[in-house]
What does this fold into?
Amino acid sequence: MIKTGVNFSGLIGPELIRLLINHPDIDLRWVAGANMPAEGIAAVFDHLQGEVGKIPTRPDFDTIDLYIGNDFQELESFMSSNDKAKAILLGPLLKLTGYDDAVLGVCEYNRKPMVRGGRVAIQPDMYTYLMAIALMPLAKHLMLNSLIQGTILMPSPTALPGIRVPATTLSPLTFKKLRTDILQKLQTSFESPIEVNVIETNNSHFACCILTVDTKMNLQDVRKMYDEFYSDHRHIVFPSHPVNEVMVSGTNKTVIGLGNDGLGRLVITVGIDVRFKQAGNIIHMLNLLFGLDELTGF
It folds into this structure.
């Protein structure tokens, strides 16, 4: 059993806790954090009543082999004192903690580094994940040589019911990790500009990335290329009809749709249930770090 401790924060939700307590290889030792009441995790999430039991709320790094969270105060001593220790880090503070070599948790790209001795993985933001899934097959075949344009629909936890959030253009800094850690490693010549708007929605947990890329390859060959790239990744699905929310709701699946626009450019659509994917991707990383089957716990 993998003895696990979790630092509760805004990035940890009931979906992750439920996946952990039902994972056949996980022994959840504690769920702690500044926001954790003494009554425990069930006091935070009513729908976990009767499921989580009396899990301790005090952190004890001596009792675990896996840490999940974004409280780095004891992380260095934990990693150095336990040769079995592994960590999945959340949040943007990674580079401030000296863990620049942590593996970016886009599992469809970094599966081998995690399986082959990886100790620290970092949860990617969902912009990076969606665009990586959309563009990696093209980068591998050196086909990212023109402007990449698109829109990302992303659920907003702060949007008020009935209030429409206007589209905003994502900063180039948003794409830095995508460029340097993934796309430029697949295609060293990649310097194409990226212009993507994000529209925040408040009526579902469906996140969708729609990108347009100019390519001379016909659509049938593009589909074959994507099929081959993701052929052994069991969380990736190519639906037979347009991508929609129902395909991913409540699952860790990522669906990919391919088509052409009126000008003959390639249109790539990637959809996820962002609420579940954030939790599911952590479980996916966990399985890889400990050499388990990728579907364990799902």
In short: The mean pLDDT is 89. The radius of gyration is 20 Å. Residues 61 and 78 are 6 Å apart (CA to CA). The longest strand covers residues 148-155.
